[in-house]
Specification:
Length: 110
């Protein structure tokens, strides 16, 4: 198996596990435990971080686009690294934007 393909699958599995853990933490707390959940509502800071992560991943993808690798020619998009980058972005959006917004809506904090 290709190392990039293995990295993509491991990253995807880790992101799914982390999202499931976070959703369980938010929406299914144990009955015997009173829990105060802190939600980061610094939306401008979250958007700036999302922009920086996107910019960083775009630069890496561009550098890999120009580089000639063992499994591709120069000036070709590396599909596995692009997929890994997409997984990172989707995880960030779900973890830092969607789940907190759903929690705020369900609890009715706003």
């Amino acid at each position: 198996m290709n190392l990039k393909k293995a990295f993509f699958f491991m990253l995807t599995i880790a992101a799914l596990i982390f999202i499931i853990i976070q959703a369980t933490w938010y929406f299914c707390p144990p009955l015997w435990e009173a829990r105060i959940i802190k939600v980061n509502t610094d939306w401008s800071g979250i958007i700036v971080k999302l922009f920086l992560v996107t910019l960083f991943l775009a630069v890496i993808n561009y550098l890999l686009y120009q580089q000639k690798g063992s499994d591709n020619e120069a000036y070709q998009i590396d599909k596995w690294f692009l997929a890994s980058s997409s997984t990172v972005l989707v995880y960030y959006v779900i973890s830092y934007l969607i789940l907190p917004l759903i929690l705020i809506y369900v609890v009715g904090i706003a």
